[in-house]
Amino acid sequence: MLEMDTAQLSKIEKGLRQLKREQIPILAEILKASSDELMTLWLADQIYEVVKDEKMANQAMQVAEKKINLKQRKK
Fold first, then answer.
1. CA distance linking residue 31 with residue 45, whole number of Å
2. Is the separation of the CB atoms in 42 and 18 below 8 Å?
3. Which of 23, 46, 48, 67 would disulfide-bridge 19, Cβ 3.0–4.6 Å?
């Protein structure tokens, strides 16, 4: 259902590769899990990969959170 071979799946399980965004709902269906929860975890992994080695990572994430909250209030 995920349209991948066992080698790709193994790399994902070991944390060497990431699922593609479009695979999240499919995986949620397979696992009978919350798509929103899996998407949240996937996004968190994406953010972590970008900021993990940055000295100002926590501060940058706080600023990003403020921007997100501001944008959501405008909607």
1. 19
2. yes
3. 23
Q: pTM higher than 0.85 for the full model? A: no
Q: Pull the structure tokens for residue 66.
A: 């403020």
d(CA 7, CA 37): 25
Alpha helices by DSSP H, the chain: 6-13, 24-31, 35-51, 57-74
- Give residue-wise pLDDT tens across range 24-62: 999 999 999 999 999 999 999 999 999 999 999 999 999
How far are the Cα atoms of 1, 20, 37, 40, 75 from residue 44, in angstroms, in the given order? 24, 14, 11, 6, 23
CB-CB contact of 42 with 24 (8 Å): yes
Question: How confident is the model over 2-32, as pLDDT tens digits?
Answer: 888 999 989 988 989 989 999 999 999 999 9
